[in-house]
Design a protein that fits this description.
- With about 230 residues, the chain is α/β, with parallel strands linked by helices.
- It folds into 2 domains: about 5-110, Glutaredoxin (3-Layer(aba) Sandwich); about 115-230, Glutaredoxin, CATH 3.40.30.10.
- The protein contains 10 helices and 10 strands.
- The strands form 2 sheets. The protein has a 5-stranded mixed sheet, with helices on one face. A 5-stranded mixed sheet has the order 6-8-7-9-10.
- Keywords: Redox-active center.
- It comes from Streptomyces luteolifulvus.
């Protein structure tokens, strides 16, 4: 797939409204590190053809004079910024290795997207579809046991709902405290920026929160977990 350059006028249609993830390379002809990334950008477009869209924003002068750069706080070049559902999902600033950029893209293409302090607001709170958040931890056996169910749910509702993973730990402590995530695993259903339903603890016989719309205790199959989403998914 050819890499196209997008202007200020085209950015919303070509990037923000695009169905698939979009990798935007902010670059300039006068910037040597930008030019060194040209082969990588072309390689990524070919490697991920039909899975993501790759475009460039060509900056004629200082980034501060470019409308898109100002909007997304791009002050130095080059920058590789990945958009998903109209929001910035991740970015890498400066010269970067192919492996690092591909790792960023691959994370976004997994059935269950990883979220953290940086992208929780964009991927969960501002999502246009219901979002099922799986709060887990690598050391928690119960968390790992339900991963196949969570991934299968993501595939079942692809395009109608979103399923993401939030790792419980020091780096997400503030976020977990904000939403009352104190046990793992937790499955929390967000719709229009607020929690509508939750399951706490192991899937077999977890403890329910009082503020729920449907009963989801003891769920262990894809169909049962889907009950959390079906009330909100057309």
């Amino acid at each position: 797939m050819a890499v196209s350059s997008v202007s200020d006028r085209e950015f919303s249609r070509q990037v923000l409204q695009h169905d698939a993830p979009v990798l935007v390379a902010f670059r300039a002809s006068w910037c040597l590190p930008s030019q060194q990334l040209v082969p990588l950008v072309d390689e990524l477009a070919a490697r991920y053809e039909d899975r993501i869209k790759v475009v460039t924003v060509d900056v004629d002068s200082d980034p501060g004079g470019n409308k898109i750069c100002r909007q997304y706080k791009v002050t130095r070049l080059p920058v590789m910024m990945l958009f998903r559902d109209g929001n910035v999902a991740d970015f890498i600033g400066g010269a970067s290795s192919p492996d690092r950029v591909m790792d960023m893209i691959d994370r976004q293409l997994r059935p269950v997207l990883q979220v953290d302090e940086f992208n929780f607001d964009a991927e969960v709170l501002k999502a246009q579809v219901p979002v099922l958040v799986h709060v887990d931890a690598a050391w928690c056996a119960e968390s790992q046991q339900i991963v196949p169910v969570v991934e299968a749910t993501a595939e079942k509702f692809r395009g109608r709902a979103k399923v993401v993973r939030l790792e419980f730990g020091p780096e997400t402590a503030r976020l977990c405290a904000q939403y009352g995530f104190r046990r793992v695993p937790t499955l929390a259903l967000f719709n229009r920026g607020r929690i509508e339903d939750q399951i706490f603890g192991p899937m077999e016989g977890g403890t329910k929160t009082d503020k729920v719309r449907t009963s989801c205790v003891g769920l262990s199959t894809t169909d049962n977990v889907a009950q959390m989403l079906e009330a909100f998914v057309p």
